[in-house]
Each structure stands twice: as structure tokens, then as C-alpha cells.
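Regression test case RT-17, inverse folding.

Input:
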């Protein structure tokens, strides 16, 4: 008998492409408006067997061809393959979620969800307050998604960054838009008035109308400090928002930045990313295209040891050891005084080495993972402290109970510090969580503060593991309450109960201890959007605002 591996024969339709999933050779995905096939682990435009296959998304099968054109989606009934026009359904298929840069925070969105649809429109639902959801400033709840209005002729939106009560949009021409509460004039128009529908940011301050932005970044955290950064195609960075500790790198000024201002260093050193420390001890970090890190702001938060009002090179681990990312930990709802425990910084290098420093004295736990639990500021001989290696990404929550999670290069999770519902118990050295549950991880996010936390791990098989504080059913496993770390119990960490391939997720609401307004939004490979957890203001699509303990589909 012949041994045939059916998985190696022909093409397999896998739906919307996600960098978080694992694909096999010849898998076909929907990406950038057309069909792509996986070749050598990378998506390439799909055209089969014919010399005249010159258009992205065109499918030609020897003899008669089934050509793919704009607004068509690859379809198969198991026997034949064809492209079909999807205009009648394009507004019901989501292709991309709004995102948040809030690694290790308690802020998701202001209890609303937002997606980019296949017809290139933007839809939002849930709480429509202060303009963050782009459909007005009235504090009402929408269970049915509403189209976010942009002026006629606006190029389609390619990226959305939500910062709790403010939202930034990037269109295909590189123009930035904003809607929302506009605290600290973060919208960049020179006013603090709330903006109910998207308003163009380009054309204000140093951000000219012809400047093409390629990346949005920003953060809001302790004491409502917030900041946004816009990086253009030349690597120049423009900033708006709170300038506490002169963290923006604009020189000797503490005034908030109410219109976009160019960070002078970036005129000569092109940057690829920017990271914010948004507390009363503020700092920012710039990451150059060559992997060099530049720090500015309060001496202990930034790590430099002196308070700088301009960015200076900060590479104490050696300039050859390039940086991947900076994570400034949450410190909300700390248990002693307002200025304490607001500084905890984590730097991850491209080689997987993890460095940490910040407030540790007086905290419960040992989130450094090394057995050390004291302060680790710039006057400490251990600073900056290498705490782990082989790390893909990490997040650390402080504010009285210090805990850290690391996504490792083998796809597993390591934990140290206070359990905060993250783990079975408190430890001060790294402990690997159950590999039968926490495996093949590709995206890690943690939310929480003070006592409780929630972890979120997307695996390469398309399953999403939510664990920790499960109030209002936000773990998606049919249970309401914290994870019980006893194998076999109903709330032992397990994937959310959704028989779909999940390609991305985002937290909605706030994740304070026992908060009943938080939920998790998920995007599936077939263009569906599901929400588990709170139904506050209809953010899970429930017209009675009742919570759902398993993922509930949003109806577009």
C-alpha cells in the first residue's frame, strides 16, 4: 500500500493570515486584500501554474482560469476552488482588531471594541463615551457595531491604536487621525476638548500634511499620564501628551505637548520604535533602526542614573547586544503612597536576555526571578540586573505585589513573584507553568494591578489561554471567578471554549481587582469577532449588558 501524507497534497485555505499562527507549505491565506500562499514559511502572492499570473490574488488553474480580483475571497467546497465576490458580506467580515500597547497595565479600552472590516470600513461597539469609539461623545452603549465616520475620500485605515479613552488611526497614505477624550491634548490639535469623530492630526505642530507616518505607539497608565508617538518613514519621531519629568526628549521643559513635536535626536538617528513610562516618574525610550536604545526622563525609571531632558544612548549591556523592546510595568492601585512603586522597567534584548530594575523594597513577591526582592535603582550595584535568558517577551506588574511572566523561546511560560492568580503560589525564582497548557505561545499579554492579574497567551495552534482573575466570566471557560490551581478543576487554566482558530485578541475595559467591566475580544481566521466577559455598555454584544462566561459572537 502507498503511504500518502494528505497534508502535503494541494492547497489548504486557512482564512485570514496571522503572524501568531504556524502554517504549513502550500497553506493559502487572506492578506492585504488578496490571496497568498505560504512558501518557505513566508506568504507570497498566490498564482498557480500560468505565465500570465501577474496580479496579486489571481488564481489560475491549468486550462480555464478562476481569476481573483478586488473584493473577492478564495472559496472552496472541497472539490473545486474559486474566487467569489464578497461585497454583500464584506461589512460582516473583520480582518484586523484595534490594538493596545498596554503590556502589563490595567487599561484596555474604555469598554468598547473596534475592528477593521473586509470592506475597509472601521466598526465599533460597546461604550461610546468621550469619542474614543469614534461615533460621538455621548455616554451610551451600542450592542450593534456602528461605522466610524471618516471624511469622503479618506484612504482606508490600516492600523488602530486604542489608549483607553483615546484612539489613533493610521490610513494607507500615512496620515494620522484621532478621536477621544483628548486628555493632556494628546490628540495634537492644541486643545483639550473631546473629539467625537476622527480628526486629522497631520497639519498640526511639526507633523506636516505631507509627512508619512508608518507606526503608531503610545501608552496611558498611573495617575492618568498618557503619551503618543508617531514614527515617519524616515525614522523621525513626533510626540504629544504629558511631559512629566521632561520625558519627551524636547529639552528643558515640563509643559505638556499639545501639538506634535519632533524629537530632535531623530532627525539624525532614525528610529523604529518608541516606548513610554507613563507615571509621575516619567521616562521614554527610543529604539534605533540598528537596535540601539536611547533613554530620557526620571533617573530611576529611565535607568540612566541622572534625570535627562534629551535622549542619550543607554546600552549598559554592551552596544553589540541590540534591544528588542522595553516594557514599563503597571503600578496602579499601589498600597502605600502615591509616588511609590511607580517605577519598574524591563528591557529585552534580541538575544533573549532580560534586564530589570525599579521599585522592589516593601513589595510582596520577587518578580526579578533571582531570589532578590529589594530596590534595584541606579545606585544599586546590581543595576541593571540580568534576570533571565531565552525570553521572547515579558511583562511585570508591581504596585505592592510584584510578579512577572516571561514567554520563553520554547513557547512556554515562566513566572516569578506574587501569584496574583497568575500561578499556584508565590515564588522568588523562575518556575515553568504547566507545559500541557502553556505551550507553543506566540503572543503574551498581562493585565491587572495590586492583588489580582489576568494572563493571556495565544498559541500557534490558534487557541487562546486566559487565566487568573476570572470575574464576570472573562476567562471564556464557562466559569466566573479566579483560576483554581488544582488540576481537574473547572477553572484550571485551559483554552477559551471557542471551536475556531483565533488569530489575535485584545482586552476591553479595565482590569482592576474584581472589575466587572473587563472582557477579552478575539478575532478568528474566518473573520468572526467574539467577546468573553463583561457585557457592560454592550461591549460583548448583549443588549441587557449581561456578562458571558464563554466567547459570544459580535453580529455585524
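Golden output:
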Amino acid at each position: 500500500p502507498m503511504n500518502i501524507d494528505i497534508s502535503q497534497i494541494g492547497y489548504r485555505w486557512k482564512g485570514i493570515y496571522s503572524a501568531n499562527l504556524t502554517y504549513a507549505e502550500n497553506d493559502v491565506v487572506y492578506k492585504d486584500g488578496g490571496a497568498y500562499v505560504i512558501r518557505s514559511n513566508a506568504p507570497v502572492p498566490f498564482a498557480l501554474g500560468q505565465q500570465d499570473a501577474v496580479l496579486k490574488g489571481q488564481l489560475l488553474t491549468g486550462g480555464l482560469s478562476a481569476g481573483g480580483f478586488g473584493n473577492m475571497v478564495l472559496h472552496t467546497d472541497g472539490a473545486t476552488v474559486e474566487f467569489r465576490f464578497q461585497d454583500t458580506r464584506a461589512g460582516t467580515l473583520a480582518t484586523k482588531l484595534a490594538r493596545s500597547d498596554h503590556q502589563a497595565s490595567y487599561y484596555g479600552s474604555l469598554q468598547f471594541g473596534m475592528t477593521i472590516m473586509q470592506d475597509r470600513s472601521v466598526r465599533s461597539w460597546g461604550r461610546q463615551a468621550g469619542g474614543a469609539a469614534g461615533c460621538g461623545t455621548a455616554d451610551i452603549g451600542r450592542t450593534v457595531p456602528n461605522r466610524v465616520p471618516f471624511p469622503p475620500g479618506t484612504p482606508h485605515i490600516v492600523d488602530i491604536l486604542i489608549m483607553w479613552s483615546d484612539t489613533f488611526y493610521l490610513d494607507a497614505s500615512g496620515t494620522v487621525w484621532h478621536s477621544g477624550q483628548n486628555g493632556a491634548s494628546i490628540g495634537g490639535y492644541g486643545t483639550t476638548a473631546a473629539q467625537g469623530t476622527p480628526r486629522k492630526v497631520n497639519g498640526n505642530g511639526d507633523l506636516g500634511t505631507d509627512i508619512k507616518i508608518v507606526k503608531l505607539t503610545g501608552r496611558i497608565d498611573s495617575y492618568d499620564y498618557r503619551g503618543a508617538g508617531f514614527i515617519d518613514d524616515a525614522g523621525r519621531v513626533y510626540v504629544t501628551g504629558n511631559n512629566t519629568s521632561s520625558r519627551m526628549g524636547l529639552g528643558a521643559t515640563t509643559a505638556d505637548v499639545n501639538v506634535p513635536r519632533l524629537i530632535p535626536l531623530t532627525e539624525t538617528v532614525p528610529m523604529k520604535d518608541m516606548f513610554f513610562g507613563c507615571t509621575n516618574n516619567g521616562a521614554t525610550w527610543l529604539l534605533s533602526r540598528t537596535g540601539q536604545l536611547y533613554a530620557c526622563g526620571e533617573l530611576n525609571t529611565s535607568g540612566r542614573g541622572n534625570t535627562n531632558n534629551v535622549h542619550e544612548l543607554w546600552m549598559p549591556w554592551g552596544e553589540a547586544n541590540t534591544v528588542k523592546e522595553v516594557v514599563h510595568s503597571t503600578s496602579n492601585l499601589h498600597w502605600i503612597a502615591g509616588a511609590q512603586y511607580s517605577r519598574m522597567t524591563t528591557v529585552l534584548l534580541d538575544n533573549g536576555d532580560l534586564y530589570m530594575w525599579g521599585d522592589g523594597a516593601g513589595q510582596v513577591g520577587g518578580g526579578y526571578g533571582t531570589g532578590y526582592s529589594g530596590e534595584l535603582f541606579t545606585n544599586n550595584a546590581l543595576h541593571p540586573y540580568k534576570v533571565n535568558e531565552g525570553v521572547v517577551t515579558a511583562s511585570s506588574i508591581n504596585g505592592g505585589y510584584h510578579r512577572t511572566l516571561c514567554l520563553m523561546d520554547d513557547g512556554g511560560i515562566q513566572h516569578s513573584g506574587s501569584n496574583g492568580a497568575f500561578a499556584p503560589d508565590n515564588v522568588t525564582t523562575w518556575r515553568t507553568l504547566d507545559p500541557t497548557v502553556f505551550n507553543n505561545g506566540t503572543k503574551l499579554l498581562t493585565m491587572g494591578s495590586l492583588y489580582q492579574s489576568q494572563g493571556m497567551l495565544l498559541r500557534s495552534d490558534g487557541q487562546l489561554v486566559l487565566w487568573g482573575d476570572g470575574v464576570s466570566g472573562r476567562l471564556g471557560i464557562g466559569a466566573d471567578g479566579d483560576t483554581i490551581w488544582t488540576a481537574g478543576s473547572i477553572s484550571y487554566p485551559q483554552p477559551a471554549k471557542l471551536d475556531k482558530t483565533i488569530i489575535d485578541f485584545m482586552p476591553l475595559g479595565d482590569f482592576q481587582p474584581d472589575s466587572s467591566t473587563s472582557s477579552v475580544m478575539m478575532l478568528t481566521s474566518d473573520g468572526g469577532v467574539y467577546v468573553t466577559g463583561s457585557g457592560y455598555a454592550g461591549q460583548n454584544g448583549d443588549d441587557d449588558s449581561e456578562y458571558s462566561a464563554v466567547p459570544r459572537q459580535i453580529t455585524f
